[in-house]
Design goal:
Length: 83
């Protein structure tokens, strides 16, 4: 049990098994379409700025998910240990 908890906490879990919602795929499709439109309409010199912005937004979203996961994990562990 301790090994599983340690693996999950340190991100070694198999996340490929997580099923994303339909809403996730709808939003992903909208983001991809908006990105394509922006790239087509931007000047070549400005396209790298768009790519940089997308990368930064992705990094921010990842950090947000990690923070929420860590806090949720701690809360869940406290609930499990205090029962």
């Amino acid at each position: 049990m301790a090994t599983i908890i340690t693996d999950i906490y340190f991100g070694k879990a198999v996340y490929e098994q997580i099923t994303m919602s339909k809403e996730y795929y709808l939003l992903l499709d909208k983001i991809n379409k908006a990105t394509e439109i922006l790239q087509q309409n931007l000047l070549v010199k400005d396209r790298q700025s768009l790519i940089d912005l997308i990368d930064l937004c992705s990094a921010l979203s990842t950090e947000n998910c990690i923070c929420h996961f860590e806090e949720g994990f701690k809360i869940g562990l406290n609930i499990a240990l205090c029962r």
